[in-house]
From TrEMBL:
UniProt-recorded name of the protein: TRAP transporter substrate-binding protein
Domain of life per record: Bacteria
Cited CDD domains: PBP2_TRAP_Siap_TeaA_like
Keyword annotations from UniProtKB, A to Z: Signal, Transport
Length: 353
């Protein structure tokens, strides 16, 4: 009899546990819809370290959502890849396993080729051009395109321009890179950049770059000052060359079905918080990049800043990359022209033709 009671008790406990889980899912499902009376708890995940300006922008977004909704919408943020890398969190948001995800735009090219155009060297030559494109027609085209894949674009955090850093020698002109092994992302355009510079592009997973530099597997890489400093790469670097050869943006997206299931007021809260967080984050990103650059200098990293005439050589060196990638199926020629028109410049003007 005791054995029977024990089994019965166990079965009851299991059923109760399952009921709690199911009830929790139902509550989350309801709270992701048009419910004003309950507190909505939504998760946001991405892979960068919690002290990176992108992460700080997402935390600011969560703070603003709570404030603007009077505590009715809570966004829980997960950084440092706690819920997965860029690809994994984006796929989770697409499925609806989490509400929000953030990823660097090069990792979003599987959803639209438009991002390939953003990767072109020197299509953006300064932050003002970046913001003009994102806030204008080029950004609106991306926002609309992403909805086809089940995403609502909330805002674009500023990641920054990539600089060339290494531990071998000063780099002043493209030919100084000849024969050097430079770590790149999986971006075909970035790899092509370094090929025309004369280097040997070597794709390495981000988590392995520090060790690769330490062991000599690669001799340099391209990245923003802030990310390099925050991940202690200054410990295995000696030289930097400030050429802004590539700009990377991040983007925060929400599962579109969840967004569409919200009330108009809830939707307005999310989007208003995103806009305000983006403006705040842009300032923070630029402040942090300047701080990190000074930290590099103070640490003893030698930074070379090419003069305007020298920059022409860097730009002209990557002209073949445009010739190779600005075509249908890659960097869509029509979309590239839309970006250039929005910025009031021409391809010829970039390269000084």
């Amino acid at each position: 009899m005791n054995v029977i009671n024990k089994h019965a008790t166990l079965v009851i406990c299991i059923i109760a546990f399952l009921f709690i889980i199911i009830a929790g899912d139902i509550k989350l499902s309801k709270s992701a819809g048009a419910i004003d009376s309950e507190v909505i708890v939504l998760r946001a995940a991405q892979s960068k370290s919690s002290n990176h300006p992108v992460s700080q922008g997402i935390d600011k977004f969560a703070e603003l959502v709570k404030e603007k909704s009077n505590g009715k919408i809570i966004v829980e943020t997960y950084h440092d890849g706690l819920l997965g890398d860029d690809r994994e969190v984006i796929e989770s948001a697409q499925r609806g396993s989490i509400a929000f995800a953030s990823s660097s735009t090069p990792n979003m090219t599987s959803f639209t080729n438009y991002f390939t155009a953003w990767d072109l060297p020197y299509i953006f030559e300064n932050k003002e051009e970046v913001y003009t494109a994102i806030d204008g027609k080029p950004g609106d085209i991306i926002r609309k395109e992403m909805e086809k894949s089940g995403f609502k674009v909330v805002f674009f955090p500023d990641y920054g321009f990539r600089q060339i850093v290494n531990n071998e020698k000063p780099i002043e002109k493209p030919e100084d890179l000849k024969g050097m092994k430079i770590r790149t992302t999986n971006s075909k355009i970035e790899q092509a950049d370094f090929e025309v510079f004369g280097a040997s592009p070597t794709p390495v997973a981000w988590s392995e770059v520090f060790t690769a530099l330490q062991q000599g597997t690669v001799e340099g890489e391209g990245n923003s000052y802030s990310l390099l400093w925050d991940t202690k790469h200054q410990e295995v670097l000696s030289y930097a060359t400030e050429v802004n050869y590539n700009y990377s943006s991040d983007m925060v997206v929400m599962n579109k079905s969840m967004f569409d299931g919200m009330t108009e007021d809830q939707q307005s809260t999310i989007m208003a918080a995103g806009q305000e967080a983006m403006e705040w984050q842009r300032n923070r990103a630029n402040e942090r990049e300047a701080e990190a650059k000074q930290q590099f200098i103070d640490y003893g990293i030698e930074i070379y800043e090419p003069a305007p005439e020298e920059m022409k050589k860097w730009k002209q060196a990557v002209k073949p990359v445009w010739d190779e990638f600005v075509r249908p199926g890659m960097a869509d020629p029509e979309y590239v022209e839309i970006i250039l028109e929005e910025l009031g410049k021409t391809r010829e003007g970039i390269f000084g033709d």
